[in-house]
Amino acid sequence: MGEPPLFVDPRRWGSLIGLIGGLVFIGSYSPTLGLAFSIIAWVIGLALVLTALAAHYMWPVALGPMERPRAAALATYGGCVVGELVLIALGSRALTATGHGDLRPALIAVAVGVHFIPFAWAFGERMFYWLGGFVAVLGAIGLIAGFAGAAHAAEAMAVAAGLVMLLLITLYARGKFVDHPSVT
């Protein structure tokens, strides 16, 4: 299908959703970790967002040929979003019922991460494996540490997940996930 024109490339516009999501993780959970940590997280997060936006729209690089989305891509996307919301709702109920409602930020990171992984197949973008894997693992670490009694582990790992989302999207915007042909 080739490289779409810059301002109609759905990969560039789709990145905006992830950039907003990363900032939501930072804004929602960093205040719990103290003012200094929150300020540092916001500064890093905003710098990454500005860098990603500049990379996408001011100094764009090729993101590689865009595959025509599979027929099931839209259904996959919708199913993943619904699954994410169901996992968050049911998981939140289970955490609250067991007295661990404070671990919800980590659960949300797991759900967000897991929902990204099928997008790699649906949209032919391997970056989603990395994005989903890192975000889900950070959320799982937050859950495990929280169950073990580490104070604010869920919030810390949710903020880390948001920063990793922003970092990976910025790297994607700089073309770091483009498959380069091997030299023979």
Verbal overview:
- Helix 3 packs antiparallel against helix 4 (104-123) and helix 4 (104-123) runs parallel beside helix 6 (153-173).
- The protein has one domain (6-173).
- Helices cover 71% and strands 0% of the residues.
- It has 184 residues and is mostly helical.
- It is built from six helices and no strands.
- The chain has helices at 10-29, 35-58, 73-97, 104-123, 127-147, 153-173.
- The chain starts with 9 loop residues before the first helix and ends in an 11-residue tail after the last helix.
- The mean pLDDT is 92.
Spatial separation of the terminal alpha carbons: 25 Å
Q: Supply the number of structural domains.
A: 1
Strand content: under 5%
Annotation, overall tally of beta strands: 0
Please give the largest β-sheet. Answer: none
Which radius of gyration do the C-alpha atoms yield?
17 Å
Cα shape: globular
- The unreliable regions are none
- The percentage helix is over 70%
Mean pLDDT: 92
Tell me the series of helices and strands, N- to C-terminal: HHHHHH
Helix tally equals 6
Query: What is the structural class?
Result: mainly alpha
